[in-house]
Amino acid sequence: MSMNSKNNPFALLPFIIFLGTFLLAGILTGDFYQISMLIPALLASFVSFILPNKDRLSERVEQFAKGAGHPDIMIMVMIFILAGAFSSVASSIGAVNSTVQFALTYLPENMIIVGIFIIACFISLAMGTSVGTIAALAPIAVGISSETGLPSEMTVATVVGGAMFGDNLSIISDTTIAAVRTQKTEMKDKFKTNFFIVLPAAIATIALLFFLSYGSSTGVSATSFEWITILPYIGVLAGALAGVNVLIVLFGGILLAGLIGVSSPSYTFIDLFNHISDGITGMSELILLTIIIGGIVSMIQYNGGIDFIRHVLTKRVRSKRGAEASIAGLVASTNLATANNTIAIITSGQLAKQIADDYNIDRRKSASLLDIFSCTVQGLIPYGAQLLAASQFSGLSPVVMLPYSFYPIFIAVMGIISIQFDFPKLKKK
């Protein structure tokens, strides 16, 4: 069978090498984040070049470069750069701490765990990072549990659930950016579609947390905060919901946060530039992974691997409902293997788009399904960054938090319901 033919299973070898190397390294070291994902990605790239092929090596390299430098990949990289810079600058001016203290100031004591979830939802929605949200709130959750008698595994798992809310919805979340770009839809449209699916999950989580914690109180006191430092988050959310281009929204957020920062005598332009640089540097691994995986996926597609996967996934599909379920299964299984929801979406996004187009699935829905089911898995795997971060900041085992991981479970349920009953009903654009 020619490596350039359609429905070629051998073309998937780079992808298998990528996942297999990552899993083997994680199992041997006992830590799936001990080795950078760039290592298996580079190995998979090398394999994609040496597979038997009728083309010359120079032509293969050119094909890889076309995928790595695809306009969608480059736009995604630009967004990642600005998102990292905004998150870093906003955090440096005290926006995260002010948001936490704002919520603790105005929430009733007997609804504190509900408040923790809502705070985590807002912070992650504004910051676009679930791990950053967990780092900010997990220590507070542990302190609250000691004051109230509530199980610390429940309070910390609640923080993780709220963090996944923003990870799934925020316009500066790398998962959301990846889902929107791979499906070629608009950020505001994906947000609205996704929001209607996960809102019942958030409400169910709040109701369950209220029931489990009713009557508890806390002696945790809020400290003072500066209202003005919350404005960059509010501005970014407002701009996104108004449909402003995401690059402009992020640039405006950096500018606003920077102006607020330099208005303080202790915050200089040098500090601002350093925080922008730190934020961009913090996204460097993800940016490189995105570029490399873009090249790998291009090679797999060129050699017939994408056609093969589509054939396997859809050969028993007889309906739009079945096609949506195949998209959900594709991204969920990839996330289980990679323990990274952004990489799972980037890896499976192109195939998901092809399935969506073949079965007339609205791209707003396919983008939402990619994000929902990747975040479901990411919020439940004990070797994922979110539960590992929660474990690091709380001293708890990731496994003991799983029974209290209500929100990731509820969004999975709502995702299944959205497939089964074709919800929400979307008007043709």
UniProtKB/TrEMBL annotation:
Entry annotated with the keyword Chloroplast: no
Residues in Na+/H+ antiporter NhaC-like C-terminal domain copies: 15-211, 230-420
Keywords: Antiport, Cell membrane, Membrane, Transmembrane, Transmembrane helix, Transport
Membrane-spanning intervals of the chain: 35-52, 73-96, 111-144, 194-214, 234-262, 283-302, 404-423
GO MF annotation: an example: antiporter activity
PANTHER family assigned: MALATE-2H(+)/NA(+)-LACTATE ANTIPORTER, NA+_H+ ANTIPORTER
Name of protein: Sodium:proton antiporter
Organism the protein comes from: Pontibacillus litoralis JSM 072002
High-level lineage: Bacteria, Bacillati, Bacillota, Bacilli, Bacillales
